Amino acid sequence: MTLVQTGARLHVSLLDLGRATSRAYGGTGFLITGPRTQVVAKRAANWHVESQNHLDSYAWQDLRLVIRRVARLSRLKAQVIVLTSAPQHLGLGSKTSLLLSVIAALNAELHLRLDKTQMQLLSGRGGTSGIGVHGFFSGGFVIDRGHTASAVRQYVPSRFQRPRHPPILALCRSLPRHWRFHLAVPVGSRPFTREEELAFFARATPLPAKEVHEAIAIVYHDLLSAVESGALSLLSSALRRIHSVGFKLRELRNQGRGVQRAFNRLAKSDEWAVGMSSMGPLIYVVTSSAIPAYEVRAEIERVGANYLGTYRGLNRREE
Questions:
Q1: Are 118 and 131 in contact (CB under 8 A)?
Q2: Is 75 helix (H, G, I), strand (E, B) or coil?
Q3: Any residues with CB less than 8 A from the CB of 170 and at least 6 apart, and which?
Q4: d(CA 181, CA 274)
Q5: Domain ranges in the chain?
Q6: CATH class for domain 176-312?
Q7: Which CATH class is domain 2-172?
């Protein structure tokens, strides 16, 4: 029997959705220790998959598709049990974590000898940014350069685009050990439907080249510097700037008033850094470990959001 477990990812921002460079998409984000995804695989007489967590129909569809792809590679069969998985459609990269955990568990249990790239492609994930597909293996803070611009006809959400090649990994760094990531979901917020996501990408892109360049500069000069130095004040400044330009600005503006209000109120504090993961509605608050989690939770609830938990950075390798 093989158990694979991983955490979640917080997606800071996509980068080039304006054909300002030779690359399309790309992005940056953090890997954190939870909410956890846990998958068990064990050899069996027939293929079987079950989940002890609720998964929507799209997750089940993708899960079964991935298992069919893996089944073609082996004469052996297995039972797959999803013990836990991150909440869906909040901005935690739950589907990428789930599919890669299943593939990794089957790879080990059935001795398939798949390498990282093969597992990434089997998952079908990473159509826009590679934070999830790379961060699953590396952990930490990740920047990727997306895909060749000429291969992308139009900008669409990741779920609508299966990549022919994994996004190029630019770099990964270990997250500071004293940082804590507190997760909040504003009351009354809801995930976007597939149709709403497509419509948003259609009206929000292409971006002005100037904004693309500014976002890339913030990521490489400010956000990366914050991670490498561990300075929360620099992280706070970098995230404020990221959310005021480019695709991230449009993602935040696309949210309802409740999410924007909670975000703005939390971002006023000088004690921590605040961001919205992916298209939201999840908001993350990054603090020093010296600040008690209950104090942050109280502030999260005061601004009208539900507290989801406090987690550390997930560092799988040191660079």
A1: no
A2: coil
A3: 26, 143, 144, 145
A4: 10
A5: 2-172, 176-312
A6: alpha beta
A7: alpha beta
Q: Do the Cβ atoms of 180 and 288 come closer than 8 Å?
A: yes
147-148 and 141-144: which strand pairing? unpaired
Confidence at 318, pLDDT banded by 50, 70, 90 = very low
Q: Give the three-state DSSP class for 267.
A: helix
Given a cut of 50, whether residue 25 has pLDDT beyond it is: yes
Q: In what helix (H) or strand (E) does residue 38 lie, and over which residues does it extend?
A: strand 23-43
Residue 28 and residue 13 in contact, taking contact as beta carbons nearer than 8 Å: yes
Residues 6 or more apart whose CB falls under 8 angstroms from that of 72 comprise none
- The owner of tokens 């007489």 is 45
* CB burial of residue 196 (10 Å; 0-12, 13-18, 19+): middle
Residue 6: closest CA among 100, 73, 81, 75: 100
pLDDT of residue 245: 98
- Give the separation between CA 149 and CA 24, rounded to whole angstroms: 5
What tokens were used for 278? 């992916």
- 226 vs 308: CA distance, rounded Å: 25
What CA–CA distance (Å, rounded) separates 35 from 172? 21
Alpha carbon 315 to chain centroid, angstroms = 15
Question: In this structure, which amino acid lies at residue 136?
Answer: F
Query: Tell me, what's the pLDDT at 10?
Result: 98
Q: Rounded to whole angstroms, how far apart are CA atoms 206 and 17?
A: 6
